[in-house]
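*** Residues and shapes ***
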Amino acid sequence: YLHLKGIDLDEAIEKEVRNYYSKGLPDRMPPVDLVMILQRVLMQFGDGHADVRSTNFRLGEGEPFNPFLLGDTDGKVVAFRSDRSDLLDPKYPFVVSLDGRPIEVCIEEWIPFISAGSPQLIRRRAVGLLREVSMWRRIDGGGGFRDIERKMHRPFAVELVSKDGKKTRTLELKPTDRKPTYREWPRSESR
């Protein structure tokens, strides 16, 4: 795929390194940063089966998680319970923001981490990645790894909007270490 797409690997890696580190590679970097850099480069090749894995990190697999799932329908993001039994809030089904960050901004940030495909597939995969809190929560300031982990587990706000788009509601939720999974929907017994 590298040669089919005409990608200059060295240039692609250098560009992604500059996205993370404006002064070039540091002497030491967290493994997650290396995984993110390599994942973005690899996704440019367009191989949907390619992935970067580390014993410390795998994209979309790190705790903590949202205590709900997200889905895309007609260009809107809907929130539903982690067991998929109902919407998170049936009167306010659509997500406006996560932790004060617009949901569309959260989605757009993760598109480069997904291999080339149809716009619908890319969006669906990006929305799915948002179940991992670290995919949308930003940590400002210094601190070590333990400090970042502690901050990742803080409660967060989910702003929802009604079907007609006229009313909003904000829920304060706590991240969970239990990964919600996307299964068959609707459940087979409801067909």
Remarks:
- Residues 35 and 53 are 7 Å apart (CA to CA).
- The mean pLDDT is 80.
- The chain is about 25% helix and 15% strand.
- The radius of gyration is 18 Å.
